[in-house]
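[recover] target loaded
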């Protein structure tokens, strides 16, 4: 967002990007958040690499 631009006005613009979900999509999306799949081997490996390479403060 450009400096000095009102963020409320930007959100209310009629051409703002929005995603409208159909009821079935809404249900599937929130079901996935409530009951996520088990992590895959690749995801576990990515977390392991992250632990080794990123120093947290």
């Amino acid at each position: 967002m450009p400096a000095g631009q009102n963020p409320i006005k930007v959100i209310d613009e009629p051409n703002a990007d929005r995603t409208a979900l159909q009821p079935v999509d809404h249900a599937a999306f929130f079901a996935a958040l409530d009951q996520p799949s088990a992590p895959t081997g690749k995801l576990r490996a990515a977390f392991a690499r992250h632990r080794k390479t990123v120093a947290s403060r």
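[recover] notes: The mean pLDDT is 83.
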